[in-house]
């Protein structure tokens, strides 16, 4: 019998499915729940166990991991008679790996404490490719002892794993991450349009740019998206719009000015308004093309 903790995984989307599968590969017993039957079938095919409800998934779990789109979904699965807190066993560790508001994480930790459940907020960066390859960056908020217990689990999911401070700190760092990523993608998109309109070989230009100070993980990961106009979602514009709302609101609360971030947040919002919310966030290129006179 395995001595590893039993894991319940709630939310098996673009990120959650490969992450849960990496835990199965690492030897963990994973019971999962999500709303889509095909995702449950995928988990079962990978060696996990599909549950019929949140309550069923978490009942015997030592660790509950959640990966859902936003704060309302976290609250929906955590609270209420059928939620995690009412059905998890005493002493269980709840690791929320969703990207939500810092305040939601703080409130969840307080509510969980009253139920005898410990909490870490542990959002990730690296996108679908990072999830599949188990090389995610994981930014964590919570208690040191809980982080230490969760570290072997994190090690099966990512490469850069840092306890950033108390509850909510992981989400604050993730908000900053999403600010940097959005501004970086926007800068890359503007460079692509500039280069193409100037008649430069785009492949060659991006290769040399990525080898110098202008290089970045964003450019490495998204270069082919730009070259091929392939905007199949790894991380949807809809979700980055949500994240830009989180960072601009949190920055306002602490008195931090985000002038460039505010502009990019509006450009992300404009993409959604034009029907591109379901595309990958590299589709910011489409917004620049429209502004530059192209019909896309």
UniProtKB/TrEMBL annotation:
Ranges for domain 6-phosphogluconate dehydrogenase NADP-binding:
6-165
According to its UniProt entry, this protein's organism is Streptomyces rameus
Which PANTHER family would you find in this protein's record? 3-HYDROXYISOBUTYRATE DEHYDROGENASE-LIKE 1, MITOCHONDRIAL-RELATED (PTHR43060:SF15)
Task: Report domain 3-hydroxyisobutyrate dehydrogenase-like NAD-binding positions.
Answer: 168-287
Q: Which Gene3D superfamilies match?
A: N-(1-d-carboxylethyl)-l-norvaline Dehydrogenase, domain 2 (1.10.1040.10), NAD(P)-binding Rossmann-like Domain (3.40.50.720)
Taxonomy, top ranks, is:
Bacteria, Bacillati, Actinomycetota, Actinomycetes, Kitasatosporales
Q: What is this protein called?
A: 2-hydroxy-3-oxopropionate reductase
Similarity comment text for this entry: Belongs to the HIBADH-related family.
Keyword list (alphabetical) reads: NAD, Oxidoreductase
Zinc among the record's keywords?
no
Any keyword Phosphoprotein?
Answer: no
């Amino acid at each position: 019998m395995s001595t590893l903790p039993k894991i319940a995984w709630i939310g098996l989307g673009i990120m959650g499915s490969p992450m849960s599968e990496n835990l199965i590969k690492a030897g963990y017993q994973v019971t999962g729940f999500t709303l889509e039957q095909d995702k449950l079938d995928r988990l079962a095919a990978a060696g996990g166990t599909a549950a019929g409800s949140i309550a069923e998934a978490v009942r015997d779990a030592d660790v509950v991991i959640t990966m859902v789109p936003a704060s309302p979904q976290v609250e929906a699965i955590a609270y209420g008679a059928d939620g995690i807190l009412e059905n998890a066993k005493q002493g269980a560790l709840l690791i929320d790996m969703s990207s939500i508001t810092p305040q939601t994480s703080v409130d969840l930790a307080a509510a969980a404490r009253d139920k005898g459940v410990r909490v870490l907020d542990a959002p990730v960066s690296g996108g679908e490719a990072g999830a599949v390859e188990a090389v995610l960056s994981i930014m964590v908020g919570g208690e040191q002892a809980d982080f230490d217990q969760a570290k072997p689990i994190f090690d099966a999911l990512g490469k850069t794993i840092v306890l950033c401070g108390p509850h909510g700190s992981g989400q604050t760092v993730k908000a900053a991450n999403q600010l940097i990523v959005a501004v970086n993608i926007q800068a890359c998109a503007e460079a692509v349009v500039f280069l193409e309109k100037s008649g430069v070989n785009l492949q060659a230009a991006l290769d040399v740019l990525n080898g110098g100070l202008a290089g970045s993980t964003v450019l490495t990961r998204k270069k082919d998206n730009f070259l091929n106009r392939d905007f199949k979602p790894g991380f949807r514009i809809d979700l980055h719009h949500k994240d830009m709302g989180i960072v601009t609101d949190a920055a306002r609360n602490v008195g931090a000015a985000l002038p460039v971030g505010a502009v990019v947040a509006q450009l992300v919002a404009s993409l959604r308004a034009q029907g591109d919310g379901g595309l990958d966030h590299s589709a910011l290129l489409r917004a620049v093309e429209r502004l530059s006179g192209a019909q896309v």
